[in-house]
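Regression test case RT-17, inverse folding.

Input:
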């Protein structure tokens, strides 16, 4: 075996590397070098050209290529099986479209979440609320962003009712999230509703009997005396 590759072999090595990258990071059309509108004839031609070019039997002098070639030759037929069948091809196209939409939505959510963190760092509470709401619109079942929004809303007296709604939804979406229960309980305490906080702390201890924070909070709210209604009203308006 020669110590250096000939120019032809070097070109083949680069091409093999290119198709290996496509195999790992692309869709079926890209793997075969065709488009979504390519004819069945073109798809078949492209597949057989690649299969002949990269078949292991054509590269017996390169034992170090055996693994990569086998990997490539396993991926090409899978792509061809899908694209040569119109029904499978249409379904695959729909799956790609949905995946693209999800990817764009996730990217948008990540960007909004970063902006919310920046606003919170700069003490821009209205800005943080705005961007967290933007996170929730495309992902209404994401408990994490609902909890973050609820915590920030709770810092503003006029938004505490919505804070309760968001934290309740977070608990509903993630019933094992102890932090969500405790955050909601903390809002209830601020709203002078300690008995509701007590229920939530008890729930956390049912889920996690050794949860120290829940136990401390439960002892606190259990020890508080019920305030007269006049004091409740006065405290509420001071908030």
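Golden output:
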């Amino acid at each position: 075996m020669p110590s250096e590759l000939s120019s032809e072999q070097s070109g083949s090595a680069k091409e093999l590397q290119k198709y290996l990258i496509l195999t790992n990071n692309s869709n079926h059309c890209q793997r075969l070098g065709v488009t979504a509108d390519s004819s069945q004839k073109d798809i078949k031609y492209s597949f057989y050209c690649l299969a002949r070019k990269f078949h292991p039997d054509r590269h017996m002098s390169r034992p170090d290529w055996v693994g990569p070639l086998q990997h490539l030759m396993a991926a090409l037929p899978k792509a061809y099986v899908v694209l040569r069948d119109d029904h499978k091809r249409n379904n695959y196209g729909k799956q790609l479209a949905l995946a693209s939409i999800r990817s764009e939505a996730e990217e948008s959510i990540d960007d909004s979440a970063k902006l919310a963190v920046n606003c919170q760092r700069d003490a821009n509470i209205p800005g943080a609320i705005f961007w967290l709401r933007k996170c929730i619109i495309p992902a209404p079942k994401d408990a994490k962003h609902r909890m973050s929004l609820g915590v920030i809303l709770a810092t503003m007296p006029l938004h505490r009712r919505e804070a309760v709604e968001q934290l309740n939804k977070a608990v509903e979406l993630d019933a094992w999230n102890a932090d969500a229960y405790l955050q909601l309980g903390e809002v209830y305490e601020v709203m002078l509703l300690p008995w509701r906080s007590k229920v939530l702390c008890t729930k956390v201890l049912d889920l996690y009997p050794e949860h120290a924070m829940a136990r401390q909070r439960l002892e606190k709210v259990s020890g508080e005396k019920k305030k007269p209604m006049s004091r409740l009203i006065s405290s509420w308006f001071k908030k």
